[in-house]
UniProtKB/TrEMBL annotation:
UniProt main location, coarse: membrane
Membrane topology term: Multi-pass membrane protein
Family assignment from sequence similarity: Belongs to the cytochrome b561 family.
Membrane-crossing residue ranges in chain numbering: 12-35, 47-65, 91-119, 139-165
Lineage, top ranks: Bacteria, Pseudomonadati, Pseudomonadota, Alphaproteobacteria, Hyphomicrobiales
Gene: yceJ_1
Naturally occurring in which organism (per UniProt): Methylobacterium crusticola
Names of the cofactor(s): heme b
UniProt protein name: Cytochrome b561
Pfam families to which the protein is assigned, alphabetical: Ni_hydr_CYTB
Tagged with keyword Transport: yes
Keywords: Cell membrane, Electron transport, Heme, Iron, Membrane, Metal-binding, Transmembrane, Transmembrane helix, Transport
Subcellular location: Cell membrane
SUPFAM superfamilies in the cross-refs: Transmembrane di-heme cytochromes
Every Cytochrome b561 bacterial/Ni-hydrogenase domain range: 7-177
Length: 179
């Protein structure tokens, strides 16, 4: 495949929509987990699950576009270790952004069926084992989510380093409407 010279508008839109949703999902998760039982806690769980599944659907679309179209090569002039770090961290971000919602979905299906997306669409996975299995999966979900957040922060810091210190086009080419 000949690599494109720029990210497609769909790739940019999906990148930023997914990043914004993750940035909203994490504080909602921390809040819901620490609230006393009640209507607000239940509401936040439902919003968390529905928007988490939305992220998974958007990531699936993103991976399809990425495999059909590829991505532009990294900006020239980077030392070899930075090229390796960029490729490895992008791969890890893709893996985690799939794994985190899949684990949340599987854990919730085991412990707390039915899983309804936005109170309507039934999406329970066939995961048996009940509460003990569900709780174990959700613990891994939480650890994977914190790993994702840490890596995304390092990734964002690297993007800002490119923009403010190296002053290359790395951040600009992921922004809407630019080259
Ligand atoms: C990218 C998407 C997602 C992110 C970033 C995310 C993040 C998190 C985080 C950080 C926690 C830990 C909260 C805490 O215990 O302090 C959490 C908990 C939880 N998540 Fe997600 N989540 C995502 C998707 C999902 C999905 C798709 C589901 C289910 C369909 C789900 C169900 C849950 C549940 C049930 C808990 C509570 C676990 C407990 O009470 O111990 N999450 N999530
Ligand atoms: C949950 C949050 C985020 C995730 C999961 C994520 C994930 C990714 C992935 C997987 C790529 C590689 C794209 C590809 O090659 O197909 C990428 C590229 C990029 N991301 Fe993020 N990202 C997040 C947040 C951010 C933030 C907050 C910034 C900026 C402050 C940012 C800036 C960039 C830039 C500039 C690129 C292009 C890098 C290049 O082409 O060399 N990302 N992101």
């Amino acid at each position: 495949m000949i690599p494109p010279t720029a990210y497609a508008p769909s790739q940019k839109a999906l990148h930023w929509i997914i990043a914004a949703l993750v940035a909203g999902l994490v504080p909602v998760a921390l809040t819901m987990a620490n609230l006393p039982d009640g209507a607000l806690k239940n509401q936040l769980y439902e919003w968390h699950k529905s928007f988490g599944l939305t992220v998974l659907a958007l990531v699936a679309a993103r991976i399809v576009v990425r495999s059909l179209r590829g991505a532009p090569p990294l900006v020239p002039g980077l030392p070899a270790w930075q090229r390796r770090a960029a490729h490895a961290s992008h791969l890890a971000l893709y893996a985690l952004i799939v794994l985190v919602p899949v684990l949340g979905w599987a854990g919730t299906s085991a412990c707390c069926a039915p899983v309804l997306m936005f109170w309507t669409l039934p999406l329970t996975l066939p995961v048996s084992g009940g509460m003990p299995v569900g709780e174990a999966i959700l613990l891994v979900h939480k650890l994977a989510a914190f790993t994702l957040v840490t890596l995304a922060l390092v990734h964002a810091a690297a993007a800002l380093h490119h923009h403010l210190i190296r002053r290359d086009g790395t951040l600009r080419r992921m922004l809407p409407g630019r080259g």
